[in-house]
Amino acid sequence: MSEREFRPPYEVEETAERLNLTEYQVRHAFRRGELGGFRIGKAIRIWPEEVDRLLGVNRSSDHESPAAA
């Protein structure tokens, strides 16, 4: 049985590095709703799946259902 791997949310600095953006751009995209995440107090955390989406990474490929023959 395969369990989904837990990946902790990224901090703004790490998100910016991964997406090759500035920290300001990451915060602005979060505020506009273009980048999913959440706040803990004043700190912003970005979901890893959102970073994958913007990078075009498909992590669900190993969970796809087989094509009907």
Question: Which key terms come to mind for this protein?
Answer:
alpha+beta; 3 helices
Structure characterization notes:
Helix content is 38%, strand content 14%. Strand 2 and strand 3 (43-46) form a beta hairpin. A 3-stranded antiparallel β-sheet has the order 1-3-2. It has a domain at 10-55. Residues 62-66 have low confidence and may be disordered. It has 69 residues and is α+β, with helices and mostly antiparallel strands. Helix 1 (12-19) packs across helix 2. The longest helix is centred in the middle third of the chain and has 10 residues, at 23-32.
Summarize the SSE layout with pairings.
Blueprint: E1 10-11, H1 12-19, H2 23-32, E2 37-40, E3 43-46, H3 48-55
Antiparallel strand pairs: 1-3, 2-3
Helix pairs in contact: 1-2
Radius of gyration: 15 Å
Please summarize the sheet with the most strands.
Answer: 3 strands, antiparallel
**How many strands in all?**
3
Calculate the mean pLDDT score and round it. Answer: 86
> Strand sequence of the main sheet, in spatial order?
1-3-2
Helix content: 25-40%
Poorly predicted tracts of residues: 62-66
Distance between the termini: 25 Å
Given helix and strand content, the structural type is alpha+beta
